[in-house]
Amino acid sequence: MTQTLTRRRLLQGSAAVLAAAPLLTARRARAQDGTLRIGYVSPRSGALSGISESDGYVIDAIRAALGGGLDTATGRYAVEIIEKDTQSDPNRAGDMASDLIFQDEVDIVLVGSTPDTTNPVADLCELNGVPCISAATPWQSWFFGRGGVPGEKTFHYTNHFFWGAEDLMEVYFGLWDGLDTNKVVGALWPNDPDGIAFSDPNLGFPPALQAAGFTLVDPGRYTNLKDDFSAEINAFKAAGVEIVTGVMLPPDLATFMAQSKQLGFAPKFVTVAKAALTPKGIAGFPDGLGENLSGEVYWGPQYPFTSSLTGETTAALAEGYTKATGNQWLQGTGYVHALFEVAVDVLKRSTAIEPEAIVEAMNATDLATCVGRVKWGDFAAAPNVAKTPLAGGQWQADGAGGFRLVCTYNATAPEVTTDGTLQPKVW
Fold it and tell me: Per-residue pLDDT for 369 more than 90?
């Protein structure tokens, strides 16, 4: 599915960060002390922390893989990885980026996990001339949310890799076509960068739903961490909604699910981005309400890729995390690992450890990673973006009191293995 993009700014969430940020450019001479410094920003605590639960494990593994240092085009360097926690706060995300730039004096910044994290960090890096690579945010939320102009390489220092809303829509429509429904869709889109992008009447879900023959029931934007969804639920019941979609924080989805059961609302599909990503989050829903929640499957052992850094397959990476922690693998694990794969590849090829040379190497990236090939310049709509594959599936009971994420739809990414059959939502 493709969409015509128009010249406009969809989101304004990052503008305040840019307006308030100091335009400071005096930083240390890059790697003058023989050490390459890589900054990494993610929500390790707060409402989004479940998405980043495996970050520490991945970064420790990267440190071990780079223990002997890194050979680059300009010589051999020690590598220091400096981690920052946003506490799931967009304002703090900008503060953490500022710390990395001006206190830690990093050579490159990596960031992942939703536009609340990626956008303010990328904005600070762009403003201050620091190379930044981001992932794990739908590209529209990242690109248009920061003022990107369709068809133009809007940003000089910041590049991104992930899939987009058009891919998510195709996956969702494919999932929903797997069961008989009345095609009436209720939307839960919050008043945040993701929700505004997904609900946009020109570029978001509404026109695509209509074109695909679905009827949309949209009760309007809501404030994150909402404690009462009864108005939305009653609107959905009155309209005969059989499919619920949205892009929600995990606590909001849990509240909605519990209140839906209390009010006797039992749609056949609950297909929600962002909130339905982690096994602990699914297990945490009351009364087993996480069973057969459906959504995106953007990484896992079903993906046939290999790490360029360690040589491990996706199955080995997922299994390694489970063995080390006792926890199920997480989708975000692959993208954190891939961020470091790309950064290491960029730094190895850079003809100098200074921003412009690093940017030149970044733009020339063509790397097979554990999430697929990352290559910038091929996506005409947003040259700062590299697209990666996406499939769909749901959380099914594992027979041991928990849930496992199975892939049931791969028409959008045939290389991904399906390992389950779609089932209706269990209430």
Answer: yes
